[in-house]
Inverse folding.
């Protein structure tokens, strides 16, 4: 399963990429706003750091403008994937962009039927927002499982990119459900490395090694 970092924070992207586990980046308007910087500057820097799919989100209100915005974003770098919201206008834009060979990531997806429509329009990635579904009392991972089943039933090549991931258990469940990719914030990426039994085992080994006579 591919792991993406969900952020527009240059320092965090740089640091996480140095760990060797990051395959790409997803950004959104909220992440960019947090940087306090001009979006194009941030986008170019991300493209210079990470060699992998980098999702940059369109913010236009209708298909015509989304298509033009998507074309401009795609010109920034060959790794750019144009992120488009899962609405009728958004999916019209996805259809047009995919016909032009521009890769798309259909975001703010909350149901398997929305994912079916996106696949029919040629989406490269579909982003179900797991944590936000959990937050309103739905089992977010059921959405991933059902999308997997639908895509496998009909041979859709759209990749499932589990998003709005809140903790390591979401990552585990996404991997078990056959999600192609998972995008995580820096803090959840950090959490993946930690296991208390690993720390205890290392501590015991270190203590025992200290008892071994040195030459
Ligand atoms: C994914 O591409 C989104 O940027 C992200 O996962 C949004 O989720 P959140 O804002 O609920 O964390």
């Amino acid at each position: 399963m591919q792991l993406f970092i969900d952020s527009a924070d240059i320092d965090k992207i740089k640091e996480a990429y140095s760990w060797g586990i990051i395959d790409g980046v997803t950004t959104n308007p909220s992440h960019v706003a947090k940087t306090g910087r001009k979006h194009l500057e941030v986008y170019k820097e991300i493209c210079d750091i990470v060699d992998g799919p980098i999702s940059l989100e369109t913010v236009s209100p209708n298909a015509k403008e989304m298509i033009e915005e998507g074309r401009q974003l795609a010109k920034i770098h060959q790794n750019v994937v144009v992120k488009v919201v899962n609405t009728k206008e958004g999916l019209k834009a996805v259809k047009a962009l995919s016909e032009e060979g521009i890769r798309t990531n259909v975001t703010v997806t909350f149901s398997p039927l929305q994912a079916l429509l996106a696949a029919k329009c040629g989406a490269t990635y579909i982003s179900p927002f797991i944590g936000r579904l959990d937050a309103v009392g739905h089992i977010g991972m059921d959405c991933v499982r059902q999308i997997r089943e639908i895509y496998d039933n009909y041979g859709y090549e759209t990749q499932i990119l589990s998003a709005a991931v809140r903790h390591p258990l979401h990552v585990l469940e996404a991997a078990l459900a056959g999600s192609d990719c998972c995008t995580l914030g820096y803090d959840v990426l950090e959490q993946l490395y930690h296991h208390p039994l690993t720390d205890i085992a290392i501590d015991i080994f270190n203590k025992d090694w200290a008892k071994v006579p040195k030459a």
In short: The two ends are 46 Å apart (CA to CA).
